[in-house]
Amino acid sequence: GENVEQHPSTLSVQEGDSAVIKCTYSDSASNYFPWYKQELGKGPQLIIDIRSNVGEKKDQRIAVTLNKTAKHFSLHITETQPEDSAVYFCAASIFVAGRRALTFGSGTRLQVQP
Amino acid sequence: KAGVTQTPRYLIKTRGQQVTLSCSPISGHRSVSWYQQTPGQGLQFLFEYFSETQRNKGNFPGRFSGRQFSNSRSEMNVSTLELGDSALYLCASSLAGTSGGAGDTQYFGPGTRLTVL
């Protein structure tokens, strides 16, 4: 079925460096791509999202880019800080049984070393 | 504005029992979606309710069911529990659900950690 692939599964960076997480999707009709951050013992928290009519969106140190032709989108975190350490999930709005549903990537565990 | 709340936060059950989990969405949100999160399968969509009607359903057996009340609060039920049902069950609310428009942004609750022994 339709799915979302996310890479890498783990990512370790030094504080102050940039981190990039990439996702690909298979449903060409997908039009909404959110990113979530999940800390230990908590539910996923929306950090940024992008819709298919936009190629890039930025919010302070976080940015997301979307390439609809190649069906991939990426999360960019600049000037990483230890509090950025968490698991990050990408998702795409994909048709399931005739209606849209969010399908999630497998997650990336980001570790920011102080 | 209060966020999504889920009760209980932790639950321990034995095989064969049934369980009911509760979710209160953000005020004004009419859509509630449920997800199962496990280390092996990740985040998987269970179902979505909008205005008391199940609008979409993922690939889970009929033992998993849910409902939504007129105040948008939702419950999910799992009958005849199996060991493999141990997971974090997450509820997410949105204004309009999977309509494809701006109202479909989903906000998650903290989850209910279910352990089946």
Descriptive notes:
The complex is a heterodimer of chains A (114) and B (117). Chain A is mainly β and 114 residues long. Chain A has no helices and eleven strands. In chain A, a hairpin with a 6-residue loop joins β4 and β5 (45-51). Chain A is globular and about 45 Å long. The mean pLDDT of chain A is 92. Chain B is mainly beta. The radius of gyration of chain B is 13 Å and the shape is globular. The interface between A and B is medium-sized, with 25 and 23 residues.
First-to-last CA distance of chain A = 41 Å
Oligomer: heterodimer
Uncertain ranges of chain A? none
Q: What fraction strand of chain B? A: over 45%
How many strand units of chain A?
11
**Helix/strand class of chain B:** mainly beta
Shape by Cα distribution of chain B: globular
Helix percentage of chain B: under 10%
What proportion of the residues of chain A form beta strands (DSSP E)? over 45%
Question: What's the short version?
Answer:
Chain A has 114 residues and is mainly β.
Explain the layout of strands and helices.
The complex is a heterodimer of chains A (114) and B (117).
Chain A: E1 4-7, E2 10-14, E3 19-25, E4 32-38, E5 45-51, E6 56-59, E7 62-67, E8 72-77, E9 86-96, E10 99-104, E11 108-113
Parallel strand pairs in A: 2-11
Antiparallel strand pairs in A: 1-3, 3-8, 4-5, 4-9, 6-7, 7-8, 9-10, 9-11
Chain B: E1 5-7, E2 10-13, E3 19-24, E4 31-38, E5 42-50, E6 53-57, E7 64-68, E8 74-78, E9 87-94, E10 107-108, E11 112-116
Parallel strand pairs in B: 2-11
Antiparallel strand pairs in B: 1-3, 3-8, 4-5, 4-9, 5-6, 7-8, 9-10, 9-11
